[in-house]
Amino acid sequence: MTCRSCGTEIADKAIVCYRCGAATTDPVRRPAAARPRRRYRSSLDLVVALLLLVFFALYLGIAGAGRIEIPRALAWSIAAVALVLLIWRRLRR
Predict the structure, then answer these.
(1) d(Cα 28, Cα 21) in Å, to the nearest integer?
(2) What distance lies between CA 63 and its chain's CA centroid?
(3) Around 85, how many Cα atoms within 13 Å sit in the side-chain half-sphere?
(4) What is the largest CA-CA distance in the chain?
(5) Could you read off the pLDDT tens digit of each residue along the chain, which spans 93 residues?
(6) Within a 10 A sphere around the Cβ of 21, how many other Cβ atoms?
(7) What long-range pairs does 10-15 form, CB within 8 A, spacing at least 24?
(8) Residues contacting 86, CB < 8 A, separation 6+
């Protein structure tokens, strides 16, 4: 048998050509086409996330000005939950 790529004489049972490395048969399966991944499922998710961040920032600003007293444990708990959600979101990708 001869190689389809370089024309070298190779064994009949060869899987690849020893000279150029080309396969002697066509692949059985084709790889799946990669589809582009969107960062957000919809623009509504982005808007909701931004609004939540703005409201949270306003709340912390008011609390920092002394108008509302929030316990430090609550503030750290909120930060920890946000961090866990961020890590979970990253690992899901």
Answers:
(1) 18
(2) 36
(3) 7
(4) 87
(5) 899 889 899 999 999 999 999 998 887 788 788 877 665 566 666 677 777 887 777 777 766 666 566 666 677 777 777 777 777 777 765
(6) 10
(7) none
(8) none
Alpha carbons 63 and 57: distance in angstroms, whole number: 10
> What ranges in 22-71 are assigned the alpha helix state H?
43-64
Query: Which tokens is 31 given?
Result: 């790889």
Q: Are 56 and 74 in contact (CB under 8 A)?
A: no
**The token pair that represents 46 in the structure block:** 């982005």
- Tell how many helices (H) and how many strands (E) occur in the chain: 2, 0
* Model pTM above 0.90: no
